[in-house]
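Sequence only, no structure available. Ideas?
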Amino acid sequence: MHTQNLDYWKHAHVFELHNQASERRILWVVALTLITMTVEISAGILFGSMALLADGWHMGTHAAALGITAAAYYFARKHAQDRRFTFGTGKVGVLGGFSSAVVLAVVALLMAVESLERFFSPRPIHFDEALMVAVLGLAVNIVSAVLLQTPHAHHPSSGQEHHPKIRHDHNLRSAYLHVLADALTSLLAIAALTAGKYLHWIWLDAAMGIVGALIIARWAKGLLWDAGKILLDRDVEQPMLERIHHLIESDADNRISDLHLWKIGANQLAAQVSLVTHFPRPPEHYKQLLSPVEELAHVTIEVFHCDAPPCIPVGKRDGAR
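Reply:
I predicted one. C-alpha cells follow.
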C-alpha cells in the first residue's frame, strides 16, 4: 500500500466557496466609504460644520462594518481546506453578517439618540455645506450599491427580482443593507436640509433622523433574526423535513427514527439520518433517494435492521417510490 494514497477515500468539506468577485467589489465599496469619510471629516473641520463631522464618523462606522464583511470572505476562503472546521467555513459568512448587523443596530441607536437630542435642542445647521456632502454621500452609495449587485444582476436560474443571491448570502446582504442605510440617510438628509433651508423647518432634520434610525433598526433586526437562526441550527423549515421523510419512507418499508438537519452555509444543508427497515441496503442507496434535495451537501446515513415481521410483501421491498 502506498502511504501517499491513504487519503484517497476521504472527502472534502468545502461546501460553499464564496465568489471572489463579490469579495473584490466589497473591498472597492470599503475604499469608497473610507474616502468619503475622509472628505466629510476634513470638510467638517474646514467649514466648522458639526453636521459634516457627524456624517463623516457615521460613514466610518459603516466602513468598519463593511470591513467585517470583507474579512469574513477572506477568512472563509483562506481556511476552506482546514479540517479543524468540521463542516467547512460556510457559516463564517453568516457570522460576518450577524456581526455586521449588530453594528448596524448600534448605528441606528446612535442615530436615534442624536436625533432626539437635536429635536429638543436644535443647533445651527450649515445648509449649503451639509447639502453638498449629502448629495456626495448619496452618489457614493449609489455606486456602491451597483458594485454589490453587479455579480448577481443576471442570475440565470431565477426570474425573481430583489437579487436572490444577495438575499441568501447573509454576509453580502449585510454589506448591501449598510449601503442602503447610508443611501437612506443621505436621501432623508437632503429632504430635511432642503426644507430647512427654504421653509425654515429646522425640526425636520432631527425628525428625519429618527425615521431613518427606525428603518435601519428594522433592517438590522431582520438580518440578526435570519443569520441567528442559521448560527443556532434552527433555520430548516418543516416542508424540508417532510420532504426528506417522504423520500426515505416511500421506499420499501423504511422508517426514519431520528433526523438532524441543519444549515452549514447560507444555502447548503447537512443531514444525519437514522432509519429502521426490514430490507437494509447500503448507505449509498439512501443517499441516492435524497439526491433530489439539491441543498444537501453532507449526508450521514445510519441503518438499523428490524427483526420483526415485515410490514409489506417481500416482492415490494424494491418498489418504485
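The first strand starts at residue 255 and ends at 263.
Hope that gets you unstuck.
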